[in-house]
Amino acid sequence: MKDLTKCVLITATLFVLYSCMDKNGLNGAPEPTPEPEKPSVEDYFDFNTMQTIKVNIDYGFNDYLVLFELFDENPTEEPEDGSIIKKENIKGLFKASTDKSGRFSGNVTIPARTEKIWLYSDYLGTVSPIELTIKDKSISFNQNDYIASHRDRTRAVTPVNEFKYPDEYKILGDWSESGKPTYLLPKANTPDYILYNIKETYSTIKNKYISIVHPEFLENNFSSDIILSKATKIKLVFVNSGAGYKNVVGYYTYPKNETPEENKITKIIAFPNITRTDQASIFSRDQVELKYWDGTQFQDEFPAGVTIGFFLQPNGFSNNNGTIENPVKGNAWNATKYSSPNLNYQGEKRTIALLDAISTQMVTIGFEDGKDNNFSDATFYLDIEQKDAVEKNTIPDLPDENAPTPDDNVQTTFGTLTYEDKWPEEGDYDMNDVMIDYESTIYKTLETNKITKIIDKFTPRHNGGIYNNGFGYQLTNITYTDVKSITIEGPERSTFIGNDNMESGQTYPTVLLFDNIKNVIGKTYTVTIEIANADYNKLIPPYNPFIICSTDQGRGKEVHLVNYPPTDKADNNLWSTGEDASQPEHNLFYVSNDNMPFAIHLPDVKDFPVPAEKVRITTAYPGFAEWVRSSGAQNKDWYLHKNE
């Protein structure tokens, strides 16, 4: 063992001596020290506060286009009356149109902090809202699969004689514990115009309630009961439920020209449980065939001269055991509501029925189970086999409302931009030298979601620097041929732009708003750009925004977001000077040697607190450092948590 140790020591000594001779050369002269290699592009964080995800939506429609929105929270709320409504003033992350098959597939850019998405649509036939988790930068929703999974959970059907339901009711068949009838027919192929008209007429928007827009429908000379002039078969098609209650819906008949009496009519259950879509066993366009009770048995056809009325029993179904509770009478909130006003408390009108004048074979029915008079707590339509079977002039016509237009496919985004203006030198990193708020409204076509117009509003909010700093932005992903016109409204005009409101000599359309932020603090610039149908994902606000530092000394000193390219007018001699670590040849821009940004985009933020002077952002926002260290994996919402 001792001999082996000696050998190792001798060998090591000889190696050290040889290394020294090799380093200094045979004559002892030192060789020059090689320059250290630049860090690779991958060593720098991109400071991106946004993420791009793949979105696949399939509502499974046939010739029916709808609009949808994506939210980062549940966009609906449930007031005390049990209705389901969209929250007021809630802002979505993205809005778009499906094609006529109810499909959308594309990339969508949203804040990086978003982990869950709520898919929402107020168009009839959609299940909404749906909570989706972002996984592998993707979300998907297939409505037919979703409905099938709910059907699977409600397959178990108890024989009807094991259910409890009031003796005064008759039934069309069995149902499951969740209220799914065994006698459901295949889904109805509802014409798109019917769904559009029902959506607009029986609106859930307060200032558009049917009782406000069409008060004439509440007048006594219009009936909500259906008088038949021909014998016919009839189906009842469920359209939508705006209520959280588990409502029982059915019908009754009585002779024409007679007044129905509650103790004489026979009430027949059509749907045991109608409720909101996220808890339902019944979905839009589910349908059942109604049967006529002749006093002894059911008949397939309703005879001429009969009148059909409808009822809704609020919260009458029990999900625990499939039981239908005994109906309540009088003025109680859960008293049964009838289409025949004389059966209601104080003769109140609780349904509105409207005839589709185009086909004369569909009658829409909207129920009101509470007090808001929107008549959209449960909506249906009758599919009547015989044309002109409804006696004329007994119910009003369904208004022919407009189908969706491009004016409906509008999305608004907003945020804040913050800049350090000492680039390429290291600043104090308080990120308050220039602060600008923006709000962008984007108009898109239907089906293809091509952008046709953008209205951008930029408001300089704070100036923490001493230089004369200007501001502009470049539409880096489109060309001049994509821009039809640009108009700018604002307090003063940049001296660097031409009569067409764009800067000349640029490869891409470039808009400059002002040259000195000191003159325009708190004043808003409105830029309207008419676009020749550009892809929606090529114009994502705030685009490529930048400041021009010290405009009184020239045009070339630009500061952009990290890795956003400079314009053609930027001074390329400033790269890799001072503390700048840019490597233009590798598309690395505007990051410092110590891996800090010179600009940050804060998406979906209004009234971002102005950072204190000379207080580094790492101190003002403690989560910032870990966000950088983790390359964006942690503390993605750091800018929402200020150090108090």
The CATH architecture designation of the largest domain is: Sandwich
CATH topology of the largest domain: Jelly Rolls
How many structurally independent domains? 3
Helix count? 6
CATH superfamily of the largest domain: Calcium-mediated lectin
Strand fraction: 25-35%
User: Which structural class do you get from the secondary structure elements?
Assistant: mainly beta
Biggest sheet, open or closed, and with what strands and sense? 6 strands, mixed
- The separation of the N and C termini measures 66 Å
Shape call: elongated
- Strands, total number: 34
Q: Name the helicity range.
A: under 10%
What is the residue-averaged pLDDT?
Answer: 91
Low-pLDDT stretches: 1-28, 157-161
Oligomer: single chain
CA-based gyration radius: 34 Å
Please write the CATH class name of the largest domain: Mainly Beta
Walk me through what this model shows.
The protein has 644 residues and is mostly beta strands. The protein folds into three domains: 55-150, no CATH class; 166-384, Jelly Rolls (Sandwich), CATH 2.60.120; 407-613. Helices cover 9% and strands 30% of the residues. The chain contains six helices and 34 strands. It has helices at 2-24, 143-153, 192-201, 210-213, 617-620, 623-629, and strands at 50-58, 67-71, 76-77, 85-86, 94-97, 103-111, 116-120, 130-133, 138-142, 169-171, 226-227, 234-241, 247-255, 267-274, 287-290, 292-293, 298-299, 306-313, 317-318, 323-324, 337-338, 351-355, 362-367, 378-384, 410-419, 434-444, 450-463, 470-474, 483-489, 510-514, 525-535, 544-548, 558-560, 599-603. Strands 10, 11, 13, 14, 18 and 21 form a six-stranded mixed sheet that branches. Strands 29-31-27-26-25-34 form a six-stranded antiparallel sheet, with no helix packed on it. The longest helix is centred in the N-terminal third of the chain and has 23 residues, at 2-24. The two termini are 66 Å apart. Residues 1-28 and 157-161 have low confidence and may be disordered.
